[in-house]
Amino acid sequence: MLYQSDAEMIFPARVIPALRDLRGNDWRLLVERVSSQPEDAPDVLAFSLMMIRLAACMSCHSDSYRAMRGCTQCAQQTVARFKGSDAELIERWNSARADILTFLSTGAVPQVD
Asked: Does residue 112 sit within a domain?
């Protein structure tokens, strides 16, 4: 059990809209596109996988500083501090999307770390 009501075990899709205005227009368009889809859509799953990789969610635990701050703040900080361009972030999403589509068609589990 996590102590913070905004903390979950892995990146929750409900946080995606909170990342909308942290970068440029291309990023905003991606967030809007993904946010308009159901949580089980491949684009949303890919966004979550990208964020899990980017924020290192798999190493977060209930008494860590990140968990105590909550997923929304952690994700916002991770996206805002990303040193690459929006195009690089979108390419990471495309890579995660390819991994999700591969999983859905073959069952091959994508690497998270």
From this structure: no
Tokens found for residue 13: 């899709």
CA distance 39 to 48: 10
Residues making up the chain, counted from first to last: 113
Q: What is the pLDDT of residues 94-104, one digit of tens each?
A: 999 999 999 99
Cβ partners under 8 Å of residue 68, min gap 6: 3, 4, 7
What is the domain range of residue 35?
13-106
Taking the CA atoms of the chain, what radius of gyration do you get in angstroms?
Answer: 14
Q: Residues 16, 6, 24, CA angle at the centre, nearest 5°? A: 25
pTM: 0.87
The DSSP-derived string for 66-78 is HHHH-HHHHHHHH
What residue spans of the chain are helical by DSSP H?
25-35, 42-55, 65-69, 71-81, 86-106
* Domain presence at residue 34: yes
